[in-house]
Specification:
Largest sheet: 4 strands, antiparallel
Strand content: 5-15%
Strand order of the largest sheet: 3-6-7-8
Order of helices and strands: HEEHEHEEEHHEEHHH
Oligomer: single chain
Number of helices: 8
Length: 265
């Protein structure tokens, strides 16, 4: 009986190296695509969260004669030193506390207490404090709360925006529109006056897009270069925000940000 021997041909070293190189090239191409898809999905979740927060705000105003809710509560058991954030007004209308966060960065606090509500000051979806919620007289700086129907072009006014604290980017913090519109872009995480940086830094995590809910309840993204004036120094930012001449209208887009001293604009 004859036996036929089959020869099994193995890969050569060169062939193995070629296969490995092809796999490496494909991985280099696909991994950034997967990362971008994941980031886009998280931005979509954040937009959904903003939509729900805005809807809660609209329901609140419908129950209190069209008035926009305040940015914080300081009456007992709270105080100026330990206030509750805006969410305390919206809780009866919100389905979940999970909607208060930018999905890309996750929750900033582990425990959401029902007793002190301190955590509400660090949510990453923040209220446009003096461009949507309230305004102040000048001179005098007496705060009053706006009504929705009196504001010009609410469909173009940011009501809620994602924010970040420069010293802890996973946390957010309330902001004022005139300062948010005038960020310092040189060493942005080490700027001494952090009030200018809170919206700018959060947008950086979303490809420079300000992720926002507008006054009429719809949501969207606005490139920060369209509505911000970039500054090199804090002194320039203070001039941009009209720190020392508040009687002069600013150069930034007040349709988007609002104007702190005008109940309509």
């Amino acid at each position: 009986m004859s036996h036929k021997h089959r020869l099994v041909q193995a890969f050569t070293l060169i062939e193995l190296l070629v296969v490995i190189a092809i796999i490496a090239i494909l991985a280099a191409i696909l991994f950034p695509v997967f990362a971008q898809a994941k980031a886009a999905a998280k931005t979509a979740v954040t937009l959904s969260n903003l939509k729900q927060v805005a809807a809660a705000g609209l329901m609140y105003s419908a129950d209190v004669d069209d008035v926009v809710h305040p940015h914080q509560l300081t009456t007992p058991p709270f105080s100026n030193a330990n206030p509750a954030g805006y969410y305390i007004y919206l809780e009866p209308y919100a389905k979940s506390r999970d909607i208060l966060w930018d999905s890309l960065r996750g929750k900033a606090v582990a425990s959401l207490s029902n007793s002190d509500y301190v955590w509400t000051n660090f949510v990453t979806i923040s209220l446009n404090r003096n461009g949507w919620s309230s305004w102040e007289t000048y001179p005098g700086f007496v705060r009053s709360y706006r009504t929705m129907s009196s504001q010009e072009e609410p469909s173009k006014r940011c009501a809620y925006v994602i924010t970040a604290r420069p010293d802890n980017l996973i946390q957010g913090y309330n902001f004022t529109s005139d300062e948010a519109a005038c960020p310092v872009v040189v060493n942005p995480t080490s700027v001494t006056n952090t009030r200018f940086q809170r919206v700018y830094l959060a947008a950086g995590a979303h490809k420079d897009q300000i992720v926002t809910a507008f006054g009429d309840g719809h949501v969207g993204k606005v490139h920060r270069a369209k509505v911000m004036i970039f500054n090199q120094t804090v002194a320039e930012a203070e001039q941009c925000a009209r720190y020392y001449n508040p009687d002069v209208d600013p150069d930034f887009d007040t349709t988007f940000w609002g104007l702190w001293k005008d109940p309509v604009r």
